[in-house]
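User: Predict the complex.
Assistant: Input components as received:
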Amino acid sequence: MTKRKFNFFPGPATLPLPALEKARDEFLDFEGTGMSVLEISHRSKPWQKVMDDADALVREVMGVPSDYKVMWLGGGASSQFYMVPANLQVPGKPMEYVNTGGWSTKAIKEVELYGETKVIASSKEENFSYIPADVEFSEGAAYAHITSNNTLYGTEWNYEPKVPSDVPLVCDMSSDIMARKANVKDHGVIYAGAQKNLGPAGVTLVIVREDLIDRVPENMPTMQKWSTHVAKGSMFNTPPVFPIYMCKLGLEHLKEMGGVKAMEKLNREKAKILYDVIDSSDGFYKGHARVDSRSLMNVTFTMETPELENKCVDEAIPLDLIGLKGHRSVGGMRASIYNAMPIEGVKKLAKYLTEFKEKNQ
Amino acid sequence: MTKRKFNFFPGPATLPLPALEKARDEFLDFEGTGMSVLEISHRSKPWQKVMDDADALVREVMGVPSDYKVMWLGGGASSQFYMVPANLQVPGKPMEYVNTGGWSTKAIKEVELYGETKVIASSKEENFSYIPADVEFSEGAAYAHITSNNTLYGTEWNYEPKVPSDVPLVCDMSSDIMARKANVKDHGVIYAGAQKNLGPAGVTLVIVREDLIDRVPENMPTMQKWSTHVAKGSMFNTPPVFPIYMCKLGLEHLKEMGGVKAMEKLNREKAKILYDVIDSSDGFYKGHARVDSRSLMNVTFTMETPELENKCVDEAIPLDLIGLKGHRSVGGMRASIYNAMPIEGVKKLAKYLTEFKEKNQ
């Protein structure tokens, strides 16, 4: 077998090795059934147990209160961009968004079909290099929407916006769910595509407060109603079984590692290692995100010239440091250091960047 | 390892063993990348090759003409139930359906939100035990929709309905795609959830004739437009990578087995073995489907009493014959014998049913 690489891809992203190993070991024979987990009926007891375990693990790890429902849906977080307004629209009430990057922009684009949309704050004019300060959503909004972490730009909300008590806060947590403590009870809806911090691509976790489930208008396609999926325990139709199963294995690993609290401590340590390299580089590496808005998950930075940046990306590859090219909207480099990235990978990258600077400055 | 079972589940269903073994063997290291196929970026070259190969294999195996596009989408065939009318509606033109079972019924339910719906034929009054004869769709319909195989009832279209040349025929082939020759050029759209005859749950194959892609109204959410996904090669958003990868491995295996032609021959042989047991049982086993409408994929039958049926299902389990309980809408037993079910499994089941009859009649 080839040596395992340190994979800094932004998503699909690195997964915990013990979860991968368990999946491989039981790939042809899931818990003595004589079948692969891919092959068992979603109406069978062994599969129902996977669903129940996944639900319980999300609740335990995130501290989800009992009046919230947990769903596993296909179609990606991009489908939630329209399902949020489809399910939460209230005639006459505006839907309020903060625009902090590419994903927020895509989410906002879908809302106008469902009613009035207000972008109450944005950092677009400075290429989304910061999270707007002192954000306060309006009384009378249908809901308030934020994107907690911005993968492309490497920014993350480091404070809670002000939201009137009767306005549900909706958060796209695709790229930092379970990376740090989130107060679920302060949210109406949390959703997250799995492929960054939770598991592989193909499933989206949606957590909804019970009173919001039946807000959806009658004349909405069955599959687009959260209420459909809640009523059937995410199995109104055949769920994306393997992605859910992998999320369950990942959650078990997260729990073993000490849960979100331990993970947040480790993530802060990991991010600090890289930001310290940037900050002590005398401008050789330029962080894209403003210091107060820095992401724990995606460390974005540029260098003097694109040639130097490409050289830095390319020379990392033979050292097994993969996926460091930045997104075209920022350029430069990006190190995605989700929960599953071991601190050894981060240390190796920091050492490489320090040496690269010495050689090339 | 436990002995591999013969798995007659209707979906998720048995998969080709060589495909499962290959996936397991490279699970931690995909083609020397040092990463799992679950972990590589969907923008990376190794992943693009998987997508390209899957596209080419579908085209080769099914004989897809060059003016058709192939998509791999999340959200299940149940999402296509609304995406079909969302994308193909024409103001003032009715959307015509034939109702041949539970899935057709669910598909029809979603259409009314988009315009006038006409059910031009149905076998509901006889518990969907047959495919209506001489079906002829109307001039001036927006499109014509059929469900080629009916998993719950064990019926399958054994003739082509008459469709006016300017009316696109839309076919839900979820449970018999690639089980027998389909003339793609006679269709406007073919769609199929993967988890019965194509791969694991979590992805839906959609094949659309080019001229139909841009029929969709402007005011439709981005993710609901086929045009969005066609324009980006099914990667507008992160695709369900593992389900697509497993489909690709399954398609490679299908090609090695001789393609759809060889598979159809084998499927006819497999189905005949079981229908012969039913027909020669002097009424001990009663086939649900009318003889002219019998499915090659799902063999449904009942017995004198539910007690006897349960006994027959239960006593099969220790013989490694799994998943034979019928759907509640028919009761009795159902043997799902998709492409990946080896003929040895069918022969073993036939032998068991013959012996069970001898002991219990």
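The mean pLDDT of chain A is 97.
Let me know if you want any component modeled separately.
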